[in-house]
Amino acid sequence: MDDDLQFPAQQQQPPGSTEAMDPVPDHGEDSYVGHDRLAGQVALVTGGDSGIGRAVAIAYAREGADVAFTYLSEEQEDADATRDLVEAAGRRALPLALDLRERATCDEAVQRTVADLGGLDVLVNNAGYQMARDDTLEDYDDERIDRTFKTNLYALLWLSRAAIPHLRKRPGCIINNSSIQAYDPSDSLLDYAATKAAINNFTVNLAGQLGPDGIRVNAVAPGPIWTPLQPATQKTEKVKHFGADTPLGRAGRPAEVAPAFVFLASPADASYVSGTVLGVTGGKPVF
Ligand code: NAD
Ligand code: MG
Predict the structure, then answer these.
(1) Mean per-residue pLDDT, 1-29
(2) What is the pLDDT of residues 245-260, one digit of tens each?
(3) One MF term in GO for this entry (predicted)?
(4) Cβ(229) to ligand 1 under 6 A?
(5) 3-state secondary structure of 273
(6) Is 192 assigned a catalytic role?
(7) Does residue 237 lie within any of the structural domains?
């Protein structure tokens, strides 16, 4: 198994921090080059402080968008770094410290984005929670079930609902962060995988509802990506070999996922793309 060693052993408490990771993830800081694909647009990215959300915030800013993003209050250091990266691209950043497990904070995230940045073109439902466990459903407590479903699913519905009237005016689009877990569920992530399968179903169904308004709805399904979520929620043994079981034989970098979010957001490139789930999995099937 040591042939498959991918990362040094490490463990964090959720939600996890970027600085504490070894190696620190690549969010495209030194590589992403924008081409005005989102010039003048406004995006709201949930969980934009770290991981895939930070890579999306950087890419969107370099493509010309102002970026509001949410984070948890424990993640202030990561949020400050994302804010600086968006501003370094010459765009406005709006960091929002909000726990999204309540309808009111989801409404607030949308309202403050529209009030401060002048509208909304792209809603990226990226925030997510998982906790890998060895036990079975009989041992899941309500707190765990609530945390997984409220973060991954309720918030996504509440945010999307609040955003629709604003998206209709542009018209804009919604991009959800799904997962390979929707197709190939791990029994240690029973509740999480179920939310991701629901997100896929919601994505195609909402695309049907909102098509007549010109609003596109899509999802990205990442495979194993090196973000704080992993050392914060997976067992050390799993972290050490994280990504080795993909056809490409390694974990992906957040910087390798962000371009999928750029493509789906781009009104020029993805004008006829709606109701689909784009896999970024290192070769694992997403059908
Ligand atoms: P991450 O830890 O960097 O990002 C997750 C973010 O979710 C956190 O930064 C946090 O701000 C936010 N969040 C968690 N609970 C929240 C709550 N109650 N209220 C508001 N925000 C909350 O990790 P990531 O891997 O970049 O995760 C982003 C998305 O990617 C998640 O939806 C995750 O399910 C999905 N995903 C990740 C992987 C992977 O291997 N890393 C694979 C497939 C899908
Ligand atoms: Mg974070």
Answers:
(1) 93
(2) 999 999 999 999 999 9
(3) oxidoreductase activity, acting on CH-OH group of donors
(4) yes
(5) coil
(6) yes
(7) yes
**CATH number of the domain that residue 242 is part of:** 3.40.50.720
Distance CA 189, CA 187 (A): 5
- In the reported structure, the alpha carbon of residue 123 is separated from the centroid of ligand 2 by a whole-number distance in angstroms of 18
Q: Is residue 36 part of a domain?
A: no
For residues 56 and 4, what is the distance between their CA atoms, to the nearest angstrom? 29
Residue 286 lies in a domain: no
> What is the pLDDT at residue 197?
98
pLDDT reported for residue 4: 85
Q: What does the alpha-carbon distance between residue 207 and residue 256 come to, in Å, rounded to a whole number? A: 25
Among 19, 52, 234, residue to substitute to test ligand 1 (most atoms within 8 Å of Cβ)? 52
Average pLDDT on 97-119 reads 99
What's the domain range around 216? Answer: 42-280
- List the residue whose alpha carbon is closest to atom 33 of ligand 1: 128
For residue 18, is it within any domain? no
Contacts of 28 (CB under 8 A, 6+ apart): 55, 58, 59, 254, 255, 258
Distance 212 CA to ligand 1 centre (A): 31
Full-model pTM: 0.99
H/E stretch holding 93 = strand 93-97
Counted domains in the chain = 1
Cα(15)–Cα(9) distance, integer angstroms: 18
Q: Cβ(47) to ligand 1 under 6 A?
A: yes
